[in-house]
Amino acid sequence: MHLNGRELTGLSASARTRAGLGRAFQLTNLFPNLSVLENVRLAVQATKEGAHRRGLNLWSIWSDHKALMSRALEILQSVSMTAQQEAPVASLPHGDQRKLEVALLMALEPSVYMFDEPTAGMSHDEAPVILDLIRQLKKDKTKTILLVEHKMDVVRELADRIIVLHNGALVADGEPNEVIASPIVQEAYLGKAREAA
């Protein structure tokens, strides 16, 4: 796997993140005993530490901490979670944990966002919030969003290009309407039988 001309295969997850690849998993990967704000602050801090390291002095520690907290609050505001900033992550409902995971991705400032079934396990009422966040991220044309998803309504709504794998083989690649209309995609993912030739 390459990103911006750099080989990422074999790199650790943290090295891939530093290279610009952000991932959100089907199962949330958060610090459950820390507050919502602390989770985001740690992600912001990881990004800032990668960008520069300063010598230790009390002024730089306080100044850096204040800037990190300010950026973390800005991100929480963008995902509508400032009201929950002091809540322990373990106390959040599943939908809010998914929103927080998107906030962590935003804090890492990747050039590629990878989402693995972002609405998995979410109620019908919770899913639109995550889809709205992905729509907002998609507006930044300097970013790429890779979405692994089996819900065709989600794919239809968000995708500019669809790549379909069936039993590990590439069966379709192209514009959403064209791919969704493909007989093999109709059969494999939409349960429609192909007409006999």
Task: Characterize the structure shown.
- This protein has 197 residues and is an alpha/beta fold.
- It has a single domain (2-160), classed as Rossmann fold.
- 46% of the residues lie in helices and 15% in strands.
- The protein contains 8 helices and 7 strands.
- The chain has helices spanning 13-18, 36-51, 58-78, 94-108, 127-138, 152-158, 176-181, 183-190; strands spanning 2-3, 6-7, 21-24, 112-116, 144-148, 162-166, 169-174.
- The chain has a 3-stranded parallel beta sheet with strand order 3-4-5. It has a two-stranded antiparallel ribbon with strand order 1-2. A two-stranded antiparallel ribbon has the order 6-7.
- Strand 6 (162-166) and strand 7 (169-174) form a beta hairpin.
- Helix 2 runs parallel beside helix 4 and helix 3 (58-78) packs across helix 4 (94-108).
- The longest helix has 21 residues, at 58-78.
- Residues 50-59 have low confidence and may be disordered.
TL;DR?
This protein has 197 residues and is α/β, with parallel strands linked by helices.
